[in-house]
Structures are given as structure tokens and as C-alpha cells.
Design goal:
GO terms for molecular function: nitrogenase activity. The chain is an alpha/beta fold. 50% of the residues lie in helices and 11% in strands. It has helices spanning 2-12, 18-21, 25-29, 46-54, 98-102, 106-121, 132-136, 141-152, 168-182, 209-218, 233-237, 250-264, 276-292, 298-318, 322-325, 338-347, 363-372, 385-393, 407-412, 430-445, 449-454, 458-467, 472-481, 483-500; strands spanning 61-64, 92-93, 126-129, 156-159, 196-202, 222-228, 244-247, 268-270, 329-333, 352-357, 379-380, 399-402, 417-419. The longest helix has 21 residues, at 298-318.
Length: 501
Amino acid sequence: MPALKAKIDDVFNEPGCDKNRGKDEKARKKGCSKPLTPGAAAGGCAFDGAKIVLQPVTDVAHLIHAPLACEGNSWDNRGAASSGSSLWRTSFTTDLTELDIVMGQGERKLFRAIREIAETFSPPAIFVYSTCVTALIGDDIETVCRRASEKFGLPVVPVNAPGFVGSKNLGNKLAGEALLDHVIGTEEPDDATDMDVNILGEFNLSGEFWLVKPLLERLGMRIRACIPGDARYHDIATAHRARATMMVCSTALINLARKMEERFGIPYFEGSFYGISDTSEALRQLASLLVRGGADPALAERTEHLVAEEEAIAWARLEAFRPRLAGKRVLLNTGGVKSWSVVHALQEIGMEIVGTSVKKSTPEDKERIKQLLKEENHAFESMAPRDLYTMLCDHKADIMLSGGRTQFIALKAKMPWLDINQERHHAYAGYDGMVELVRQIDIAIHNPIWETVRLASPWDEVGNLTASPAGGDRKEEAMSATPVRAFRKFVNSVTDEMGEC
């Protein structure tokens, strides 16, 4: 635990964060993460954050050293897609029982589990995750992993991020530290070029990075490592030979980008693949960093040609949606990079942003939002479900874009909703992804179901007529016009005919 505390202190003292640099030394060591609310930490602990960052490494076996309940449904907890092995979707756990804990059998059971995985699946590496229970009873997973690695001849990586140490965001950063300490730089590539790039904080949700990768390949760039989306262990181990890094989600992995620049001299920038303009700017910045690192100067000119070609195609496809969506109001309840990148993307086609959440956004994200939105009060730190519901019921927005947790607020308000978080089933990155996002918004807003569900129910209409003194005759008329009464008349007529036969 002393080593873990030192690692947490180091992560909190992050010089790459502008907000952290502005604090005095004492305040900086306290970190930026808010304490967890008791009873509200499910799905948001440090262990969960570490698993989110590392589980999409597809050819690695992920072993959870914990009681069974700490492992979730590994087939359904994230929408990250893989083009290769599905080993990462297989759940491995030591399944500690009360007897194992009381008798101190945790470390032995962990070693046996590593041996079974190594002999049965022969993965290139095994990631071992500590949890609240195993950290509290004092199991030394780092020593066990070191001994297992020597015994079985493969990397066994300890991920020391038990849930009780902090928030999900802290777990993201501790996962990045595990990669720095045990993976990155442990192998040397035999094919390194001056066109290799790293992409950090891209999770390939619904396979959306596959919409961007062909653009980079057309420019001659090669993805040395995409961490963690559709990654392989060997890719991450050789990531130190890339010439430039794009950081998609600084909230999660800014420590990884900064330390790779310090240790290996790889320059980085923060960008986004959401929206036409942001995708173009990301391509330009990658090309600029590579040229500065020694790549062919003609890369910049090739990038401009590609950007012009792809933008023309995308805008031509989007024109069909502009008359249907211009002026439509969007309520955005998300965080991180999407809090500003999606704002810019929707404004490009004439939609109005009436509110966006900045709960999980960095100070840099918030500054971008201020520049994009006309009114600062459109950016809210946290909005209660009741307030979101009221805003939708008062028709201050035409659609809400959020994660699955808040979809029922929109549905209860009988308003369109679209999932843009990790559970989504559509890819929204790159030029094609922007067109798909707009298409899905158009489908959601103009779905005829909303006109139907907003109509008064037949029984409500009858009830209103009954309450009226002069509603007797109208009540019978309304009853005869209801779908139920019409169906009953149809059934009776069929029954009478059958009786006559």
C-alpha cells in the first residue's frame, strides 16, 4: 500500500493539467478528484476505471483477483470493438471465498489462476487487477506477478487500482501508470518509421476508430498503438517508438501522454475526431508533428488535399439534413471530450445547443465550450434528473443526447433521445461518423412515434368528458370512437357472422 499511495500522490501532482499547475504545492497534492458519495460508487470506482482503460487490449487475459461479484459482464459492459482476438471478453477471476480470505489463501489461488490461464490460453500477457477485498487483506499481487512471470515466461502485469482508493478517473490514470511501468518500452519493433503515431484515449466504441484509421493510412501514417481501442499487447509494448501522439481524452490519460513525451521524446496534442472541422484539424496537427519529427514535408500538402476532398463529400451528404435540423435545439448531457467536440459538430449543421454538461470535463474542455457557446449558463456542472425532466417537458429542447442512464428522463418526458456514450451501437467519429450522427438525430427527432405518444389516451379523453356536466352524449360518442370500442365492434360482427353460419 505505501507504493500505491506514492503512485496516487504522483498522479494527483499532474503538471500536464493547467488547473493543477495553478494550485499551491499543498493543494496540488490533494488532487482534483471529488470524494465518492457513499452508496453511489457502483460503476465508478478506481478498479472500474482501470478496467475500462485496459480491457480493450484484445489479446490479453484480464484476471480479476477478487470475489466473484467484482467481475461484471465482460461481454456487455463496454461497446469497444475488436478486429482480432476475443480473449479480452472472457472473464477470468480468482473467485475468492470467505474461507480463502480467512485462511490467507489469496496469493496461492492467484498464482494457480495465472498458471491455468498461461497453460490453457497461452496469451502474450496477463493483466492482474487488485480490488478492495484483496488490497485490504494485504495480498501482494506485484510479488506474485513477478514470480509468475519468471515461472511461465510471459509478462504478468499487476494493475494496482483497488476500488476504495478513489474515483473512476483516478483508476484511468493508474491504468496508464501500469502500462508505463510494465509494458511500454519492453519490446523493440523491427519496422519503426518516421510516420508512426500513437492515439491515446480512443476506445473504438462501436468500431468508430475504424472510420478514422483509413484516413491516416491514406496519408501514409501508421498506427503504432491505439490505447486502448482494438489494441494488441505488442503494439503497446513498442509504443515508445512512435513519432507523434494524439490524445483524445485528456481527462483519462494525460499522465500517460506527458510521461511518454518526457521519457521517449514523443510530442503530443489533444484533439477530437468528432465533427468535420475537428477531424480535419486533428489530421493537420498529426501531420505537423510528424513533419517536425523528420517526416516528408510533402505530408502537409497531402493532408490538405485529403481534408478538402473529404470535407466536400461530407458537406454534400449533410446538405440533405440541414433543412430538417436547422434551428433544432439539443440538450447534451455527457462529459469529457464530447462536451465540446459534439457541440462544435452540431453547430456546424445549424443546430442550437441549449445546454451541455461539463461534469467530467477538464478546464481546457470548459474553456473550449465557453468559446463555442454564446451564453455561459448553457454549460452546467451537474443537473438533477428533475431539472432535466422539467427542461424537456417545457420544450426547451427538441432532443437529448446522453448516456443510457438518463434515457428514461427523456422517454418519460415523451421527447426524442439518442445515446452517444459507450453503450451506443453507431459509430460517430470522422467524416462518415458525423454524417451518421446527424442521420440518427434526424431519425430520432422525426420519428412519428413521438406525435402518437403525446396524444391524450382514449381513456383520458373519456374521463375528461365524464367530468363535464354536458358531456353525456359526447362521452358515448368518444367511447364509440376509441380503438378499443372499434375493435370490440369488429369482434362482435365476426362472431355474429360465425353464429349465422
